[in-house]
Design brief:
single chain; Rossmann fold; 18% strand; binds nicotinamide-adenine-dinucleotide; UDP-Glc/GDP-Man_DH_N
Length: 162
């Protein structure tokens, strides 16, 4: 399957690495240095398993700055963009997630979008209503930083919902 991953932090890069063992994965980021490192099989983040897999495994993984290339024929788009919590305003900044959803809906509205980013309760329902898309689902992430790929290889649970 062709799978795109938006964001190559702990969440996105661990999932991209995991899935690239058996699928054609394109990972999108907005930071050129991260994209270059991944394409040179160097991990931009500290994680023993990601570092090892990038060096040693045969992975079908390409990183890119070009969202259109990645999203246009993907069956799934995994959204792992940041959603920083603003403690002053007491809310999650979901603008990066929304910008990915908007791009995917313009480029490839049939793709199933799987949000792995942390989002507030009720967000999936409200974004499905706001965009009119039935292709947005949520699967919360439980990994630990620096053990990100390990935790995705051996997950204690996988939860998916709308
Ligand atoms: N790190 C964790 O342990 C952890 C665990 C569970 C959930 N989460 C959640 O997952 C999400 C991602 O976390 P992370 O730690 O991987 O974050 P991160 O900040 O390390 O990585 C996010 C990446 O997304 C990129 N990005 C930003 N806007 C983008 C866009 N429009 N298109 C493509 N890429 C874009 C950034 O450049 C960055 O490389 C957050 O919502 C976080 O709360 C993180």
């Amino acid at each position: 399957m062709k799978i795109a991953v938006a964001g190559t932090g702990y969440v996105g890069l661990s999932i991209a690495t995991l899935l690239a063992q058996h699928h054609e994965v394109m990972a999108v980021d907005i930071i050129e240095d991260k994209v270059n490192k991944i394409n040179n099989r160097m991990s931009p983040i500290q994680d023993e398993y990601i570092e090892k897999y990038l060096k040693e495994k045969e992975l079908n993984l390409t990183a890119t700055l070009n969202a259109e290339d990645a999203y246009k024929d993907a069956v799934f788009v995994i959204i792992a963009a940041p959603t920083n919590y603003d403690s002053k305003k007491n809310f999650f900044d979901t603008s990066a997630v929304e910008s990915v959803i908007k791009q995917v809906m313009e480029i490839n509205p049939d793709a199933i979008m799987v949000i792995k980013s942390t989002i507030p309760v009720g967000y999936t329902q409200s974004i499905r209503e706001k965009t009119g898309s039935k292709n947005i689902i949520f699967s919360p992430e439980f990994l630990r930083e620096s053990k990100a790929l390990y935790d995705n290889l051996y997950p204690s649970r996988i939860i998916v919902g709308t």
